[in-house]
């Protein structure tokens, strides 16, 4: 039986280790196999035996959740409150949308008056849960850029 077959038969979960007789030199309790976050490592500790190695295995979703502990608990969906300075102003974002061939109406794009940026709503199951922005300043004229940066 080869070492990979032994590993597969043991079905070690993340964090598990086994100590046993070495499959090569057959010395009792000198061979260990450990699953360290999907990396399977093995080694024989007998001085005259050179068996050692490692391989990777896929982690299951449960393995990942277990390794994260309480961080992986399901989070509740918080409501997103659109700031008053996120407004619909297609004229302000027209050049940006034209450059990237975006339809501001289809995407529900907004303009952030405070930060002078295009706002992309993040929608999950039909509900806006967040938003992210992209500054179109590089698309504006030098005069507009200077004015905006000077008045921040």
Which features does this protein show?
152 residues; alpha+beta; four-stranded antiparallel sheet; 5 helices
The SSE order reads: HEEEEHEHHEEEH
Low-pLDDT runs:
none
Number of helices: 5
- What is the strand arrangement across the widest sheet? 1-2-3-4
For the termini, the CA-CA separation is 71 Å
Strand count: 8
Radius of gyration: 29 Å
Bin the strand percentage.
25-35%
Helix residue percentage: 25-40%
Summing up helix and strand content along with how strands pair, one would put the structural category as alpha+beta
The profile of the biggest β sheet is: 4 strands, antiparallel
Instruction: Tell me the overall shape.
Output: rod-shaped
How would you describe this structure to a colleague?
Helices cover 26% and strands 28% of the residues. The chain contains five helices and eight strands. It has helices spanning 3-10, 61-68, 90-99, 104-107, 142-150; strands spanning 17-20, 31-36, 39-44, 52-56, 86-87, 110-112, 117-124, 127-134. A four-stranded antiparallel sheet has the order 1-2-3-4, with no helix packed on it. It has a four-stranded antiparallel sheet with strand order 5-6-7-8. A hairpin with a 7-residue loop joins strand 3 (39-44) and strand 4 (52-56).
